[in-house]
Amino acid sequence: MKPLAWLASFRLRILFRSAFLLLALAVVAMAVAVLQEEKQRSYDNYQASFAKTKEQIVARLRHPAGQLALLNPPRDDGPVTPLRPVMLPFSAIDFDDQGKVRHAVEMAGCLVQYKNYGSLCVAIANNAWAGGFIYAAGTFVSSTLVPHRIGNEFLDGAHRLRVMVSLRGETYRWLAPFEVPGRNDRRQTSGMRGRFTGYVELDDRDYTGEMPVKEFRGWVWQSGRCLDAASASDEACEKKSFFSLRLPIDVLRDALFQPEKPQWPPPDLDQFQVRVEVLPPGDGPAIFDSNADGAVAPFSLNDLTDLLLPGETLTIRKAGRAEEADQLQLRGKHEVIEESSLLLTRLIRKLPVERYDAPVELADEVATPMGNYQIVLHGDARSVNQILSAVATRVSWFVGAMLLAIALAWLVIEIGIIRRISHLTRCSSALSRRVKTTDGLDRFDLADLRGGDELGILANCLNDLLRRVKEDAERERIRAEQERDLWHAVGHEIMSPLQSLLALHRHAGDPSHRYISRMQQAVRVLYGGASPSEAFQSSTLQVQAVDIAEFLRNVADNAGFADVRCAPAQGPVPVRADEYPLEDVFSHILKNADRYRQPGTPITLTLETTETTAMVIVHNVGQPVAEDFMDKIFEYGVSELAEAGANGNRGQGLFVAKTYMAKMGGTIAVRNLDDGVSFVLTLQRMRVVGAQ
Fold first, then answer.
1. pTM of the model
2. Which of 94, 461, 574, 650 falls 20 to 30 Å from 268 in CA-CA distance?
């Protein structure tokens, strides 16, 4: 029980500290739970986004622009110009029809964009037997096209194209002036349609006797609307033109008739170089040049990298080929992620989520005219941890601020309340253990705990109470000293006559000698004590063998009360006792029994023995002892009489009896019976060894 009582003294402190500790743990647990939930949600979102990314990639690759990228090797990060032909996902192009050509190049997404509305697509068809041609189609902006007059030997008086193709160590150069087939086709309101007639370019401007290249075909369609609305009626306003060319390449056509089956597309297609210039009439600079700076390349497989997240890998290989040389791998760009806490990163990595360990991989297949391509997208779920760690690090200050607020609140309560309560508790505990005199109260000063709050008011009240107790203790000390002096004086005055009487009755067998000795014993017990209770408790007894059977007969014969009966006992029963104090015990008990017995009823003394104890039962017929009073009747100064002090009763008889019984190794108890009250005295038996 003592450990529990000691622990209970810390109950309030434990309660306060446990509450703050649990609150801090709850904040941390809430943060961890939110992190785990966010990790699960981020992973699920990543899975969904990963699937959408795969669908976007496949959709773009199934579009003609995507198939164009699949059929052609991806370009590197070098310059876009000079242009290199790409293989279209079409078997041929109807270059004579503006709508078909425009639809083909726009759907294929092969147009390279230039400034001032310029664009150009240079390509070959995916069917080798369509002829060894390179197609070029695009747009440029110019004033109203000036046609070349048929029969004129000089070509520089009209708008014209200059085309140059370089491949396999050979260079093809053409100059194609703009010509109008008939006057009816030259209508300003609906636009203008004409053709580019190709000639092998000469160093001289005189083309007398030169014949156009038969397989060179070119058409141009100029819009009738001005790009600038304010100049709609101006003949010299700029207009947008769309042109389409078919360039005959003898090297490619000759390869078709070789004994070996031609390889298509040509393996050196990315080495071909094409340049197209649109020249104005005269010697002015080119209106459009395909080698101009600022060209924007069309879509290629490398552009799919923008759809990939860090750690994701896209593998594209042709179906049926497992060689690493025939596959393309694209990796997501590594973004610079905010700095994250190493501790949070480790914590997030260890948080379990569902299906987190499953491999993240999706596959699909795209069909093209040149065969099927397998698309495999590999994901990296670790990026979820990195992103979540960066976000958690950014908002961790909020959790830290909450923990700091809890710590500050605990510190304020600890210093302002708990510390003062602890000090007050220690003072109170020490006061209850050690304060017995007024000197002990001087060591306990609670003035430093005074204040205007509730605890300060309590400390102030306790300090005033201790001051009152100190004053009462001082008065009690003075009274005790006066009482001790009185007992000294009374004892001295009584001992002198008793010593003279004892000299008159020297014989031990004289009854007067016995009573005088008992009186001296009683005076010695009280003489020198600070108080009667302390005197009785500090007295020393001479324990020896006493025949309790003979002792009870003498008590019954000399009790001084009427009708005290002793039940006879068989033989002597020696017990451990001091005869004189034992007589005082029975004197007080018999006096108490005589006071409360019914008139005319006897007081009986009964002896019961065991091998180790002798039990004396003193019984009287009368009213039972109140239950709430049975534990108090053996205390000093307790009496049932309302005016005990006035009648000379100090309430110390049963206290003396219990004290002497305890010093002799015995016990005394009281119990209620149906017809009265019994006092039970138990003494230890003593074995007497006879002489040999």
1. 0.53
2. 94
